[in-house]
Amino acid sequence: MALTRRALLTSAGAGGLAAAAGAGFAVGRDERSDDGADAARQIVPFHGVHQAGIATAAQDRLHFAAFDVEDGLRADDLRDLLRAWSGAAERMTTGRPVGDVADEPLAPPLDTGEAMGLTPARLTVTFGLGPALFDERFGLADRRPAALRDLPALPGDELDAGRSGGDLCVQACADDPQVAFHAVRNLARIGRGAVTVRWSQLGFGRTSSTSRAQATPRNLMGFKDGTANLKAEDTSALARHVWVAGDRAGEPAWLRGGTYLVARRIRMLIEVWDRTSLDDQEQTIGRHKASGAPLGAHDEFARLKVDRLPADSHVRLAAPSTNHGAALLRRGYSFTDGLDDRLGQLDAGLFFLSFQRDPEAFIRVQRQLGANDALNEYIKHVGSGVWAIPPGARRGGWVGQTLLGALSRR
Ligand code: HEM
Fold first, then answer.
1. Are 350 and 226 in contact (CB under 8 A)?
2. Candidates 154, 225, 317, 372: which one to mutate for ligand 1, based on the most atoms within 8 Å of Cβ?
3. Are the C-beta atoms of residues 101 and 107 closer than 8 Å to each other?
4. What was the pLDDT predicted at 293?
5. 268 lines ligand 1 (CB under 6 A)
6. Residue 410 burial (C-beta neighbours within 10 Å; 0-12, 13-18, 19+)
7. Is the CB of 164 under 6 A from ligand 1?
8. What are 294-309's pLDDT values in tens digits?
9. Which helix (H) or strand (E) holds 225?
C-alpha cells in the first residue's frame, strides 16, 4: 500500500479531521459555516453538485499539476488517494492546514506550513481523471466515458511529451499564489508513494472572466480576453455546453454533474508580436486592442458580426457560429517560465484551460484555429492534456466517489 499512515490520518473522515484540527495548530475558523460570511472570509465551498474552480469566478493565480500513478497501485489505493485528497482540499479551501503542524517533534509536520496566517484566498481545488486511468490497471476500462480519449494530433501541434498528459490532474486556483502552491504541494505530499508529479504549471494572471461581475482581464498580447466567454450566470448555456447531464449517448451516470477539462500550454512568440503594428494585431484577433470591441464597433460587448471580420481572424474562427455551435468555458492563465535557453526568447504565453461537456467541442475549434488562425504566426502549442472532471462531492463524500465508490462494492 502506497499511502503513508500519516497521510491517511489527514483523510480519515470527519472524525480524524476534527481530531487533527483540535490539537496544536488550530486557526479557530468555524468549519461548518458556508453562509454569506464565507464571502467575507474568502471561502469558496469545496462541496457541491459541481466541483469548484469551473463556474467559480476566475481567481488571479493558478498552480496546475498533472500526476502519474505509480506502478502496482490498485483500485482501492486509488480510491484512498482520492478520498485523502478531497479531505485535504476541503480543509485547505477553508484555510485550515491538512493536518497538525506541531504534534510530533521527531516527524515532519503533516502540513508544510507556508499557508499559516494567509486567508483562504478563494482557493479552489479541482480534480481530473485522465484517459490512461481507464486502462486495465484498475478495472475501470468498462467505465471509461466514450469521449475521454487522448486528443488527436491537431494542426500546428508542437507538443512536448514532458508537458502533456497525466493519469490525474489538480487545478488549484486562488487569489494568493502561495495558497495555490501550498495546495498542490500538500496534495503531492499526501500522494507520495501513490502518484508522482508528471509536470506542473504556475499561472500568474487570469486570462478570462467567468462571471459578469468580473472585469475582463488582458492576456500577454495586451488584448482583453474573456469578453465572449461562457459565464457562470449563463446557467442554461452551462447546462448545454459544460455540464455532463448523463442523458446523451456515451455519458456515463458517474460523470453526471461533471465535465471535461482541456489544457494547452501555448507559447507566445512575444518578440515577434511586439514588432507587429497595432493594425495587424487587431486584424489578427478581430477586436480592437484598447476597448476589446469587435473591429468597427466601440463597445466591448457589442455583438460579433463574424462575416465583417477578416476571414483568418481569431475570434471569427473561434466563434460558435463558425464551429457548429461549439462553445467552451475558457479559464486560462498567463505564464512565464524565464528564458528559452535554446532560442534566448521569453518562455511565456497562455496556459489555456477550457471546460466543455465533450472534448470534441475543443477539438472542433482547435482544428479550425490550428489550420487557419492568423494568430498561429505568433503562438505555438507545446503542451496538452485532457481529463474527465467528476462531479462535486457532497458533504462527507469525496470527488471520484461516483466512479470508485461503486467499484469497491462490486
Ligand atoms: C495564445 C493563444 C490565444 C490567445 C492570445 C487568444 C486570445 C483571444 C482573444 C483576445 C479573444 C477575444 C476576447 C474574448 O472573447 O474572449 C479570444 C476569443 C476566443 N478564443 Fe482565444 N486565444 C488563444 C487561444 C485560443 C484557443 C486555443 C482556443 C480554443 C481552441 C480559443 C478559443 C476562443 C474562443 C471560443 C473565443 C471567443 C470567440 C467568440 O465567440 O467571440 N482561443 N481569444
1. no
2. 225
3. no
4. 98
5. yes
6. exposed
7. no
8. 999 999 999 999 999 9
9. none
Which among 156, 183, 167 has a CA at the least distance from the CA of 376?
156
* CB proximity list for 42: less than 8 A, separation 6 or greater: 119, 120, 121, 122, 175
Question: What are the beta bridge partners of residue 67?
Answer: 168, 197
Phi, psi of 13 (to 5 degrees): 85, 180
Q: Is the CB of 318 under 6 A from ligand 1?
A: yes
Q: Which three cell numbers, joined as nine digits, stand for 141?
A: 476500462
Helix ranges (H only) for 191-246 are 235-241
- Do 192 and 7 touch, CB atoms closer than 8 A? yes
Rounded distance, CA 383 to CA 98, Å?
A: 31
* Alpha-carbon span 291 to 122, nearest angstrom: 29
Euclidean distance between the first and the last CA atom of the chain, given in angstroms as a whole number? 20
Q: 93: number of CA atoms within 13 Å, CB side?
A: 27
- The CA 355 to ligand 1 mean position distance, Å, reads 14
Q: Three-class SS of residue 301?
A: coil
Pocket flag, ligand 1, residue 151 (CB < 6 Å) = no
Name which residue sits closest to atom 32 of ligand 1, judged by CA. 318
Q: Which residue has the cell 473561434?
A: 318
Question: Tell me: the pLDDT tens digits for 159-169?
Answer: 999 999 999 99
**8 Å CB contact between 377 and 285:** no
Q: What's the confidence (pLDDT) of residue 4?
A: 43
Pocket flag, ligand 1, residue 221 (CB < 6 Å): yes
Which residue, 312, 320, 329, 319, is CA-closest to 371?
312
- Residues of the chain short of pLDDT 50, as ranges, are 1-34, 409-410
Q: How far is the CA of 224 from the centre of ligand 1 (A)?
A: 10
Distance CA 343, CA 95 (A): 42
Q: Which atom of ligand 1 is nearest to the CA of 379?
A: 1
* Rg (alpha carbons) of the chain, rounded to whole number: 21
